[in-house]
Specification:
The complex is a heterodimer of chains A (about 210) and B (about 180). Chain A is mainly α and about 210 residues long. Chain A has one domain. Chain A is built from 8 helices and no strands. The radius of gyration of chain A is 20 Å and the shape is elongated. The model of chain A has no long low-confidence stretch (mean pLDDT about 85). Chain B folds into 2 domains: about 110 residues, Rna Polymerase Sigma Factor, Chain: A (Orthogonal Bundle), CATH 1.10.1740; about 60 residues, Arc Repressor Mutant, subunit A, CATH 1.10.10.10. Chain B is built from 9 helices and no strands. In chain B, helix 2 packs antiparallel against helix 3, helix 3 packs across helix 4 and helix 8 packs across helix 9. The radius of gyration of chain B is 17 Å and the shape is globular. The mean pLDDT of chain B is about 85. The chains are: A mainly alpha (about 210), B mainly alpha (about 180). At the A-B interface, helix 1 of A face helix 2, helix 3, helix 4, helix 7 and helix 9 of B.
């Protein structure tokens, strides 16, 4: 095939193209993922039973607020990364790690005030295994929806884009799970929410080059 | 004619608005830049001009089918270069060549050269088209090769107008995918 023939083919009947589709489609995928995560928690696990007075809403709201602090910048970076060359414009990725560092500092401080014999009980409380399994599982559908949307775009750093898709899916899942999980200690939250979100990010980083190739 | 950023960007904006003439001019200019870029890179590792032409066509198709990912508020050259570089790395990876050093900062270099001497690529359009599902093949034939309007193509193919548009879009993507698949064998 001659390149000039290809060019004539491509430039016959050129369609109008909307460049705002990128942000809109990724944004819609993230919101759809959020809806799926919340619905899964409500209908499969059930919301936590102790939400009776206004005061009991504080702990889950704090957890949701924390995941949103990561979710919002991560979604913005994800949209940037889905455009060719977007990796050059996301050099301040470290910003996303700041909330993690902040909560780890919080953990370090809270450990100062707890005798070491309590650590094990706090970290390995009744719900740790459920949390460890639930967050990655709930993240699967949001991750798939996001990957499907990203595949319509043109990321050129597939591993990093995959990692951000995993991070966003992990945050959505953790947000949903926070409505169920009744363990409100900071140590538990940092360890298992932080850990599982990091796990989702790692999975996305590994899967990105396979799933996103174009 | 050496290309420049401002000129190309104006062409791209017109092409996004549906200007076929601007789209053709843009693709023609970019094909020359891409060809020069790929020829230089591939010659260094002892690859043929046919391979450079294959890659030029692949990159052109990617630029065409993914042009909605260009943000008009940004410069065009880095966007084109990122696609060109991505397609080259992907090509080298899937043809088992050692990875060459391709710095991401090299966007300017892309416009520094052009090459209008095209050879024929190994992609056989007629054969690739014949392997597409019937609806996609007929839609592409009518709209992209015979130059019929979407309305005319719809009545000729017995499809709705939106079905014609969808089939052209999917068909082009399927063409890109089948070219990529053949390379991996």
């Amino acid at each position: 095939m001659k390149t000039e023939d290809l060019i004539s083919m491509l430039s016959t009947n050129v369609e109008v193209v909307d460049h705002r589709r990128v942000g809109r489609n990724i944004g819609m995928a993230v919101m759809a993922g959020a809806a799926v995560a919340v619905a899964t928690v409500f209908f499969v696990l059930g919301p936590r039973a102790d939400l009776t007075t206004v005061g009991t809403f504080v702990a889950p709201l704090l957890k949701v607020a924390f995941t949103f602090i990561i979710l919002v910048p991560a979604s913005i970076y994800l949209i940037r990364l889905t455009r060719p060359g977007g990796e050059r414009r996301s050099s301040s990725v470290a910003l996303v790690a700041l909330p993690f560092i902040a909560i780890m500092l919080l953990v370090a401080v809270s450990l100062q005030f707890a005798p070491s014999s309590h650590w094990k009980g706090t970290i390995l409380s009744d719900e740790w295994l459920e949390c460890l399994i639930s967050i990655p599982f709930i993240a699967i559908v949001p991750f798939s929806v996001i990957i499907w949307a990203v595949r319509q775009m043109a990321p050129t750093d597939l591993a990093r884009t995959g990692a951000f898709a995993g991070l966003v899916a992990g945050c959505l899942s953790a947000t949903g799970y926070a409505l169920h999980c009744a363990d409100d200690t900071v140590l538990f939250f940092a360890m298992w929410y932080g850990g599982t979100i990091a796990l989702c990010t790692y999975a996305g980083w590994k899967l990105g080059p396979k799933l996103l190739r174009w | 004619m050496a290309a420049n950023e401002a000129e190309l960007r104006a062409l791209m904006k017109a092409s996004l608005a549906g200007d076929a003439h601007a789209h053709r001019t843009l693709l023609n200019q970019l094909s020359a830049n891409l060809r020069a870029y790929y020829k230089t890179r591939l010659a260094r590792i002892g690859r043929s001009a046919t391979e450079a032409e294959d890659l030029t066509q692949e990159a052109l198709m990617a630029i065409h089918t993914r042009r909605h990912t260009y943000d008009p508020a940004e410069a065009l050259t880095p966007w084109v270069y990122a696609i060109a570089r991505y397609k080259l790395i992907d090509h080298l990876r899937h043809t088992r060549a050692s990875m060459t050093d391709l710095p991401i900062e090299d966007a300017e270099e892309l416009l520094a050269q052009d090459d209008y001497v095209g050879t024929e690529s190994a992609n056989d359009l007629t054969r690739l088209l014949s392997e597409l599902p019937d609806k996609m093949r007929r839609a592409i034939q009518a709209v992209k090769l015979d130059g019929l309007s979407v309305v005319e193509a719809a009545s000729q193919c017995g499809m709705s107008e939106s079905a014609v548009k969808v089939n052209v879009h999917r068909g082009l993507k399927a063409l890109v995918a089948s070219i990529a698949r053949e390379k991996r064998i």
